Structure formats: C-alpha cells, structure tokens
C-alpha cells in the first residue's frame, strides 16, 4: 500500500485502496505522505481516527525517522471554526435574539458556561488548542455559548482578540506544516464549495472514504426554519432604520403558514404557497442586507461586532431561501416533521456530489481514497462512481504512467487484503428459515432466534438494528428471558460509557443502531456474536435516497442496485467488520434477514462482506457459540 500511495503521489494519479482492519493502513499512507515533496492533507470522517493519527501514529512515525536528514515531519490538525472556543464570545458575551451581547444565560446553564470560560482562558494562558474535544464535559447548546461558526466570526483583523484566536493559531500552524490532518466536511467546504479553509496543498489522502459522499452531502445541505427568519429579523431591527427588518419578519410569518400547510417529505414540485413564501423571504432578506448602514472602521471592516453578526444572519437566510426558491433539478428539497429537533425544517441537499467532486477536487489535486470497505459486490465500481471516478478510466496498478487527455482522470484500484483468516475465524449465519422482515418490527420468530443465539454465546453479543424501536424491543425481550446477563441498549447512557461497560463484563449484550454499526472497536472475547436484524436498506421515504434512486432509474440505470443495495452493502460490510478486530478473534455474524440467502441481490451483498464460512444451519452456529463461550470461561 505504501508503495502504491507513493507512486500515486509522484505520478499524480488517483488511487483507491481497500485495506482491511489490522493492516496498519494509516502508516501505509502517512509514510509516503511525509516523504512527498509537497504538502499533503489527510482527511478523516471521525474524531476517533483523527485522535489516533495525531496522538499515536504520527508521533511514533516522527520519532522513527528523526535521524533522516532533510525530512520535514511537521504536522498540524485543522478543524472547522466552531470546534474552537471563541475568545471574543468568552470575554464579551453572546448576542441574544435582539443582537445585544449577554454575559451569561439565566438558570443552571450559567455555571457550566463559567466553567467553560475559565477553561478557555486557561487554554489561552498556557498556549493550549482551545478545542472542543479537550473541554470539560458539556452539551452542544452549552458549547455554542463560547464558540462561533464562520458566519459569526469577526475575522482576525477586526477582532480585538484576533492575535490569540485559537482557530487562527491552528490555521497559522497548518500554514507552516508539511502534513495537515482535517475532516471530510472541512475538505468539502474548501475544495468543493470554494471557501478557503485549508492552506494550499498538493494532494489529499481521504481515510474512511466510504463515509465521504455522506459527509460532502451533509456539508452542502442547507436548512431554513420560520424561527430562524424571525431571529434574523429581530437582530436586524437594532441596525436597520427602515421597514426592511419588519418586512423580513412578515416574510417569516408567511413561511410559517406555508410550512404548516405543506405535507412533510420530498417536494417533486414546490407547492405554490411554499414557492411564494420562499420568494418573499429571499426578496425581504436581500433588501434587509442592503439596508444595513455602511459604517466601517479604519481597515475597511465593520467596527460593530453585533451589527456584523446580525448582517451575517440575514445574509445566510437570503442565500438559503434563494437556493430553495430556485427549484434547481440539481437539488432535492424536503420538509421534516420537526420531532425532537424542534420546529419543522425545510432542507435542501445536492442530488449527487460526484460531479462537484470530479470537477473541483479530482481535476485539481491527487487523491488517495482508503478504507476497510471500498469493494462492494466484489469490485470498486460503486464507490469509485460515487466519488467522481469513472470505471472506464481505471488503469492497472504497476502498469506504468499513461499519456491521457485532460478530461480523463486515470485511477488505480488496490485491495491489500487482510491479516485475518476470515474462513477460519468467522462464521456468517443467514437465518434463512425466518419470515421476511415486515413493517411491524421484530416478530416472535426473530426474538426467539435472538434469545437462543445470545444464550448460546452467554452474552458477548453486539446487536445492530435498523431502528431504535427494534433495538429496544430486543433488549426488553433479552432482559426478560435471560436475566442473568447484562443487557444494554443505546440511549441508556452515552456511547463511550456503554462501550466501557460492554468491554468490562463479558456476559454483556449491547444493542443499538447506526453509530454502533461503524463506530465501535471491541477486540477480544468481549464480542463473539454480531447480530444484524435486517438488511439496512434506506427507508423508502428517505427524501434524498429516494430522489437519487429515481434519478438513476431515469438515467437508464438500476436505481435500486446503484443506491439502495449499495447503501445496504456498505453498512453491512461495516457492521460485520465489528466482529474480527485482531488475528485471534473468533465468532459469528448472524443475519436474521432471509433475503440475504433468497433474493437476487443477496449475492451482491454477500460479496461485500468479509469471506467468512457461511451456513444457514442454526444448530451448527449455536454449538459453535457454546464452544467459544466454554473456551473463554475455562
């Protein structure tokens, strides 16, 4: 892998590398990245991997090569601005709905804000990073009281604390570093949206590349609510002398009425009332932005932080309403049902991101994509297409350089395998005898199967479910029928706490949904059974997935296979990957959905999973689990 990455960087050709758990893939790209003449950016999807790179892998690597003359081993971490404490907000206060700076919120949150402010000041004194992850325990709402996003930031030259700013210090360090570690979202904003966030670089390594499309889509998704329009109008009223802020508030009321009258879900075409309301908001916000006074300080910037932030809020409302009102075929627009997240939200997201990635990232930079799961259905085509690489442009690894036209982007695919012997270490059990999953959740047959498998394993089980309701139903049944085991369900506590409990006691069962499918690493005897309740196809009413599936059908493709089956294959590969984490791990992945064995698409899904020994015989599997449990207990 290291050789292939080095050649890709030198030859300026894209590379897609599948490197299984345990291969040491981070060193496989860090070594050639450090040896490369120009700056390389490493982008990850999760904070856990970012921490691993910066706190473990890079320090060890730098120590190992410290005697190599002339090698630049400098590196830095760069995150979005809202991940750093803002000293202006810490010292001057937070704008309320009218834009006035408030020192402390009322109630119990005030004490936590004081604690976070004290921490931020200490970080500033001691030269700390001021990063969110290093802060005392807090909620997102509490963190927002001491941080800003890029819109609310005054800018280093206009902020009285610009010289000390944690985000600016991180940016300066990155500017001097050979290697920059960042995240997918920041990369997307920099490369695809064209907002300069990262110092100039030559190449990028994208780890956890199976997550990239989702993260890029997320970064390009905008939301609009009626309270957000109200808040922007109220803040503007302090600075706008005419009626423009009042007109914006009236437009917000029109939007509220349109949202109340509209059905939730995706809009194939905008309802007339919604289209009119969005145009009203767009036009009123544009007029309101123009009405802000043009007062400036000596360097040409706005001297009043409150006014700048109020104007920024209106500008954001304008940009989002304009995008939504445009009704572009390149976007998908839908209305959420609100629920726990507060008011109903209008959301707009790109129908696809491969075009932008191809035009704005792949044509400009050399890109290495890597992950443990990039081959779906046995090849790279699905993932390569989703990120903007064409299967027809693939060239063989080791086939030498190529003279190609400018519009062609040659790429190579490499599977470096795995150190694990999946055929000996793991069993894939497909419960073919069970009824097909229905809409009513888990039935008696599925619950009986779950209980029998967990009983045979004597705990040591991770249950991956397609819904929170299914996970809770299964947890309740196991607690009732196997009371001697400890049964935990996602939501009982924070995920790190649940993971720690799961590792500490082998006679424990942990049930959960999506974050467990991908984010849990529990090597050893803790986990010898991974249960998957059903093939994780996207919900039929998922607005973005259903739009993408329909677009693929309309283009003459197979939308189900290109979108739904690919989505399911990726999640199943990630879920099954929770089982074998070291060369000594053994166990069973049990899929309780018979379609994996009976449906035509089942072979595509199975080809995406680790090559474990496969059976549909539950008796064999329960005996295997009992033997494993007995071996550990003895």
From TrEMBL:
Catalytic reactions of this protein: ATP + H2O = ADP + phosphate + H(+)
Region (Disordered): 293-312
Top-rank lineage group of the source organism: Bacteria
MF terms in GO: 5'-3' DNA helicase activity; ATP binding; hydrolase activity, acting on acid anhydrides, in phosphorus-containing anhydrides; nucleic acid binding
Cross-referenced PROSITE patterns: HELICASE_ATP_BIND_2
Domain (Helicase ATP-binding): residue spans on this chain: 1-260
GO biological process: nucleobase-containing compound metabolic process
Keywords: ATP-binding, Helicase, Hydrolase, Nucleotide-binding
Classification via Pfam families: Helicase_C_2
Enzyme Commission number(s) of this protein: 5.6.2.3
Family classification: Belongs to the helicase family. DinG subfamily.
Listed name of the protein: ATP-dependent helicase DinG
